[in-house]
Amino acid sequence: MVLALAGDSTITSDLPILTQLSFIIWRDLNRMTF
Question: The whole model's pTM is what?
Answer without folding.
Answer: 0.43
